[in-house]
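Sample intake sheet
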Amino acid sequence: MTIYTDPAKRHDFVFLFDVKDGNPNGDPDAGNLPRVDPETMQGIVTDVALKRKVRNYIDLVKGDKAPYLIYVQNKGIALNTLHQRAYDDLGIKSLGTKQPREDVDKTRSWMCNNFFDVRMFGAVMTMGVNCGQVRGPIQLSFSRSIDRVIPMDISITRVAITKPEDAKVVIGEDGAGTGKQTEMGRKALVPYGLYKGNGFINPKLGEQTGLTEEDLELFWKAMINMWDHDRSAARGTMACRGLIIFTHDDPFGNAPAHTLLERVKIEKKNGVEASRSFSDYLVSTPEQSELPAGITITKLV
């Protein structure tokens, strides 16, 4: 067992990723433009957007088999249908809000044992068919870009047309034909952004959900590789640029998380005005000898 896959230890981590000519996380309240902090113009990527990528990666590499099923899916499967599987497998009748506590505890454990994302991120499963609530041991922060980003909404030309009537050619009195040949579209992007986020793994909550060494190993692989399996025309080029893990000997922590995470420094290189690649930045991480006692640093990327 490597130290950073030990579920009995507390882990705080920093992750870096970048995007080039793409939209890392569209804001539905702003016409799907890239999310930004309106005061600083730093780019923002939500925790749920990152968890979606993790879920999709696990679903891809492990398939439809327990204990790596995915609870929060994007396949049109109702959550109560998944809850009912727990009741059916355990031979318990669902009574909704009148469900005895012992039944809820049993079904909650069943959900943790079968669904990777429930075991890792937690879930509220009290709707209709009641499987209780789970507080997940792994939590991610919003990610922010190191520098301000400039959201762009550019016009693109589409050669295909949508409506059949627009394809009809009408001949005018002058003999000229009219009819649509193209349509216009829009594409939202940032030219470049390097984003930093923080994550936290609580071993005591992991004991309650059944977090395993294999779970953590898969999670780290997902954080590194999920970008390669999430390509789309809208996202441009995205990649993991750093994954730095601080592991505590004491499950309750040997130092406050922020005092460790803030030791990862990212600065723009001298002479760079508008960054357009990861090579425009300098990333510095602390040496093992510089850390408090009981803390081990691991750099996976």
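Comment: The mean pLDDT is 93. The radius of gyration is 24 Å.
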